[in-house]
Amino acid sequence: MNSGHETTNNAPATTNNAPATTNSAVAATATVITNIASLVTNDPSLGDGTPLGLIQDAAVVIDGDRIAWVGEKSKAPATDNRLDAGGRAVIPGFVDSHSHLVFAGDRTAEFNARMSGQPYAAGGIRTTVAATRAATDAQLDANVARYLAEALRQGTTVMETKSGYGLTVEDEARALRIAARHTDEVTFLGAHIVSPDHADDPATYVALVTGDMLDACAPYARWVDVFCEKGAFDGDQARAILTAGRSRGLLPRVHANQLTHGPGVQLAVELDAASADHCTHLTDADVDALANSATVATLLPGAEFSTRAEWPDARRLIDAGATVALSTDCNPGSSFTSSVPFCIALAVRDMGMTPDEALWSATAGGAAALRRTDVGRLTPGARADLVLLDAPSHVHLAYRPGVPLVSQVWRSGRRTV
Ligand SMILES: [Zn+2]
Predict the structure, then answer these.
(1) Residues annotated as binding site for Zn(2+)?
(2) How many whole angstroms from 226 Cα to the centroid of ligand 1?
(3) Helix (H) or strand (E) segment spanning residue 138
(4) Which of 20, 177, 206, 373 has its CA 20 to 30 A from that of 190?
(5) If one looks up domain 95-369 in CATH, what number appears?
(6) How far does the centroid of ligand 1 lie from the alpha carbon of residue 365, in Å?
(7) Which residue ranges are recorded for the region named Disordered (predicted)?
(8) Which residues contribute to the annotated binding site for 4-imidazolone-5-propanoate?
(9) Which residues contact 244 (CB under 8 A, 6 or more apart)?
(10) Residue 122 pLDDT class (50, 70, 90 cuts)
(11) Rounded to the nearest whole angstrom, what is the distance from the C-alpha of residue 100 to the centroid of ligand 1?
(12) pTM for this one?
């Protein structure tokens, strides 16, 4: 909509003075979704006063790409367009703040060997690096589009994604250029592993990542990330990489404490990273640091599932007061799932989360991990990203694992699924 139209139009929707909860704030041309059995707003000041801000027998009004009104259906304003949710639950679209979608090939044989108790000698990430370097731009672009569409069908309306399978200046910049065509949440992860080209000389690779590679990649990315782990990058290397990225305007996030205890979480907090991701092996001091910071602990149970590893302890983090996000880590090696509902079910079953907490972490938590306030919530003014479930309550996401409950997905006010 162009601004000339808005300024010459006296319709109530263009005046911002009225509280959003009054009917006069809603344009007649808006759409109401009504007959919602339960609505998750993620605003504790709405509905039942819990963090989910649940409203029973609810309605939502969408005006353009925004939420214009939420409340009890009996109080919904009149609009031209009406959709009957038929007693379904409505939740915010999932915000998946951690994935690695720019890759080619897959690692079926590696997974099969791991799950069959057989030794497997191939090169892990290096296998994907080789396949990704060999792929054309069109092949990589099609892969990103395919996995994003797959995630959207499962309710994900915002998805971060990273480079990290190129590991040369040209291949990393290419990955980010392709990712940026599909999402605003793009992360430079040149420091995924030390490039095989520099295996014997990590210092030279860190210099490349913080120099020419960063120069080529910064224009396409919002975030800078590093895999801070034994066998990848130590604390000093990770600090150098994140600090260099920050000096180029990128915001830090960290792959931290996935496989072992290490300095990643403390570094993330020290640098005010938006998120420390994995957080599987934490000391009490790590938990404390997260709880007393703005750094979100992003848990990625698809990785533990796919490697038969120890689960991260969500209960411990939440009880300490940390903000927890839940994401897929979608990647071909350690977590080849794009399904947030699957991760919610794992988090509830195996990580000590309640169904309410898991849903919050997969929506508002993901938004916090991306420092976004316009998504992950269904409140007046938020982006109209929402999911209708073939269920009367969000609890069914964990209660009915593996069942395709996503019935409709709306993104920016338009029905996409
Ligand atoms: Zn990852």
Answers:
(1) 98, 100, 255, 329
(2) 9
(3) helix 137-153
(4) 373
(5) 3.20.20.140
(6) 17
(7) 1-21
(8) 107, 165, 192, 258, 334
(9) 209, 210, 214, 224
(10) low
(11) 6
(12) 0.93
